Amino acid sequence: MTIYITGHKNPDTDSICAAITYANLKKKTGKTENIIPARTGDINDETRFILKKFKTKPPQLLKDAEGKKVILVDHTEPKQRPENMDKGEIVEVLDHHNINFVQATPIPFHIEPVGSTCTIIADMYFKNSIELKKEIAGLLLAAIISDTVIFKSPITTEKDIGMAQKLAPIADIEDTEAFGIEIFNAKSGWDEKTIQEIISTDYKEYDLGGKKIGIAQVETVDTTQLKQRKQEFLKVMDSMREQRDLDTILVLLTDIIKEDCIAFIRGNSTENIAKTFKKEIKDNQMYLPGVLSRKKQIVPPLEKAMK
Ligand SMILES: [Mn+2]
After folding, report:
1. What is the pLDDT of residue 186?
2. What's the 40 CA to ligand 1 centre distance in angstroms?
3. What string of DSSP letters covers 244-276?
4. Of 141, 159, 184, which marks where a domain is finished?
5. pTM of the full predicted structure?
6. How far is the CA of 283 from the centre of ligand 1 (A)?
7. Distance 265 CA to ligand 1 centre (A)
8. Using one digit for the tens of pLDDT, what is the confidence trace for 247-279?
9. Distance from Cα 7 to the centre of ligand 1, integer Å
């Protein structure tokens, strides 16, 4: 029997590394099934850099989940699952996000409120004394650093930091902070990218109170250049709204050094969103100081407001 492990659509580093490392863990614990790490989309620049550094091949592309058994990692949200997942079978879930999941049959379902899926997986390796190679430790560490924005994001927990400290020597990383900056630099080079490419780097869709909301997050060490391309952003956001039938679309420009966020907004729920965050939206723009996490600081309040 073949089982695929995959993260969310438009995969980030945590989704890719979780699929690879969890498949490795399943193999090491003697599961007889054929476990295949998979992805549902292209790998971004940051993840490419990390895979290269730890000499690991990208997971196989899973285009369609029809008739397939799948373990979902790093998401539960139906809109983020592989194509035709409803015609396949979800056999397990491992995640650290808000839960949007209904299934008639019981399955192993593991959710922990930590900073990254790879924190949960690292913990499993240590708890079960499973051999941890340098490459696997490196992927786990990189995903934790990426998802927690070098431990600065409010989603960061003691457990994330603890796991990173245990992983770093195995991965042969002396300075996690310096490694973190290396990771975030690999993501940049925004000026060479089209707006569509920038938005696609980390774009997720949510069903919030029956409304389809698209939220892109652009994590960067300097928002100056990106801000200058606002009109271009708004144009692309409008066409995405039309094409993807979105109620509202947000693009979050997150400055991980200043620890703030500029949000561009287009759509029917603009007023509602302004009220939710108690901010003024001027020229389709809202300023959110101290906001680094889409998962913890943007999605939950929106979910409440859309109800
Ligand atoms: Mn994650």
Report:
1. 83
2. 15
3. HT-SEEEEEEEETTTTEEEEEEEETTHHHHHHH
4. 184
5. 0.85
6. 32
7. 24
8. 999 999 999 888 999 999 999 999 999 999 999
9. 9
